[in-house]
Give the backbone structure.
Amino acid sequence: MAAEHAPAGAPAQGGAPAQGGVPAQANAPARPRLLDRYRSLLPVTEATPRLSLGEGFTPLVRAERLGAAWGLANLWLKLEGANPTGSFKDRGMVLAVARALEAGARSIACASTGNTSASAAAYGAAAGLEVVVVLPKGKIAAGKLLQAQAAGATVLAVEGNFDAALRVVRELAAQGDHPVTLVNSINPHRIAGQATAAFEVCDDLGRAPDVLAIPVGNAGNISAYWAGFRAYRDAGRIDGLPRLWGFQASGAAPIVLGRPVEQPETVATAIRIGNPASWATAVAARDESGGLIEAVSDDEILAAYGDAARLAGVFCEPASAASLAGVRALREAGRLDPDALVVCVLTGHGLKDPDTAAGLASPPVEAAATLPAVMAALGW
Ligand code: F0G
């Protein structure tokens, strides 16, 4: 149940009928809340409100046809677009908003390339908080902007890119006249919540993958996965650790270049970021895991985006396809064992960015609603 704030001391798994015969949570044994499933590994307290929109538990799908086309026998896709607002952001947002509520916050704010704002708006709405989102003007995919607007967030569009938007919300959180909690991934609860995706991958596979490939923008998610894999190893739940392979868009690849990019540009607007906040922890994840962070072109991203839809049935957003494009390029370059167990994180749903999809699609073939006309149109 959304925004249900059970009193302190409520059973961790819910399910027991509460007063009046209303369950604390629907289907609790079959589908525990994400924060309950991994409670021992998360910074939650007895007093943390039991906020949930049903985040997490996303599918890990084996992509046999796509893998065969690319020469990979064990290619898996983690479908983070199956989260409530259509991206991985919900894993960390549920925790950040619950902890903000616990601390007495009335107002939350974030800068965003779109998905963080959609998630903050939704969880803020469920929790009854004021939500302010600051976005780079004209550079947000249509669906994401509509999500924030529909949920009643105050949407500010600023001149400049994500990096400028993040600068101004940091200042907003630091002023004292109108207290507001920052829910960007520099909020440690965001990273802690996002680490649950690494736990799920290991639970589903029964081990860590050989390679985990992931798009990199503000660099919080690659940092979160690495923290998650290490925590799972330390808890004795897995033996080995994966190599982390991060991919930036070539027009927005500061970590690859080793310097900030003033004017980042890419079709993958979600990762159009020139100066990532979690730069240092992303580099540590890369180096400690024996992994890499490389760049993929917009053409490679769009080719992988199309292949995922046509060969795996998975419609992801362009930024998500950066992980696929990178794996494909490294396989082609002979830098990836064809039998390696590879998980690509598909961070957001394709429906968020209908304009990119429409730009690549052919218009429908028109036909009269008769068998001969339809057969003729099909060329049968
Ligand atoms: N994929 C998608 C779909 C994203 O929305 C983002 C980031 C990333 C990948 C990269 O993740 O920033 O943790 O390295 N989106 C942020 C936002 C910046 O505002 O929605 P990261």
